[in-house]
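quick one, 409 residues, struct below
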Amino acid sequence: MGNESGTKSQPLTGVKVLELGSLIAGPYASALFAQFGADVIKIEPPGVGDPLRKWRKLHDGTSLWWYVQSRNKKSVSLDLKSEEGRKIICMLAAESDVLIENFRPGTLEKWGLGWETLSAINPRLVLVRISGYGQTGPRRHMPGFAAIAEGMGGLRHVTGYPDRPPVRAGVSIGDTLASLYGMIGALVAMHHVKVNGGMGQVVDVALYEAVFAVMESLIPEYSLQGVVRGRTGSSLPGISPSNTYLCRDGSYVIIAANGDALFQRLMAAIGRMDLAEEPALEHNDGRAARNEELDKAIGEWTLQHDIADVIRRLESAEVPVGKSFTAADIYQDDHYNARQMLEKHYLPRGGPLVTIPGIVPKLSNTPGQTRWLGPELGEHTTEVLASLNIGNPCDECAQGQGHHLTEVP
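---
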């Protein structure tokens, strides 16, 4: 409990990451580095900082999301449109392993901070560029947000019910997927530099491609069979049985029994041995052809029982089952707590105790950790500039208003 969490070894200690950009895709990629010990310097515009500071629910004017996503980062307030700001970026890039940005393509070049400039300063630098449509192609200069990327990547069209408009997943999944691919790409490129003795390179991540990459057999099904996968609600097309079912008490239970042995155990548990013993239902292809019939049988059974009874019976039968967790369910869950997925920390300036998500994945010998929550705007400006032998920041800089370059003799 608290904002410092011990001195466990960190797997990315010594790795330096410079973060430019704002909101989700770029900053979340660097957040993953920070959670595993990398020294992450986040550059924010003077005065207002990252817009995420004001997104969703706030406490004393600061987003609770900000405290989570920006944990372990150092905030430096710089005006990237100024010559002085750009000079400092070049100095930081010279000693960084990775630079992550999520501006519209061409923005860094407009500021004189494109790949040619950065790689000349530091040939071993890995530049992660996350954008809506990538750095090439006819749409490269168009603004891109996760909502649009989820549509173009094919996800929205298959999400929801067939008689209703497509819906979003409930979180900015397009941004998050791009962040994950960005970090994976950075680690792969950094391995090439540090282990293979290679040179730095650009990791080009497009939001729509990050979504498209997880769309499973969407394209081969269309290419070979002309099938356009559509919305199927809570069921899995071609995989049976797996769905969400209504219980007697009005709760919904999720049952996933799409393995052959799982199907046998589920049918036995709900008293439908006639279906369990039917040869045509022995394998998934046969069950998929009769999915509606199976869903009806399962749904009739769940309607006769409260959700607690359904879960107890199916868990005893070793059938995957569970309820759809709310935030309250997660907060009180024994398994979440046992896995250290609910961390408690005090907010800055004597703030209250807040619970935040734990770190994923779990490493056995060098686990990630939360060293501090998201920083104040410009909180580390003086510290970082001093490391570059740049001193005497002006008063407004110390208050998050930017920096005027004054080199120490």
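Confidence is low (pLDDT under 50) at residues 2-6, 392-401, 403-409.
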